[in-house]
Amino acid sequence: SIFDILYSFFLFFLGTWMAPVETGSLWAKGNMASCTAQGFFFMFGGSGEVFYQGAISLNIWLLIVFGWKQDKFAEKVEKPMHIIIITLTFLLAGIPLAFQNYGP
Fold this sequence. Notes:
The structure is a single chain. The protein is built from three helices and no strands. The protein has helices spanning 2-13, 32-65, 70-98. The chain is elongated and about 55 Å long.
């Protein structure tokens, strides 16, 4: 999913590159703005990844345990599930951004 890509990219590929040079971190080349962006996308991707894993588990549980068909899941659960997950993900990533809590 896009959340897995964001999480992996900002955590494993960029690593400490976006950290401010002043921190003295290995390979740090960024500034506070790049560090804040990395923190936001790390939190956005990480929380979205967990929520969507839960959604997949819910889907499988409803299919197997309760015998739901995929059409029933799509009709009753899928749209509200996406709205709830994306809203929660933006909230979890946005609240620290609003209070300037991202950074080294």
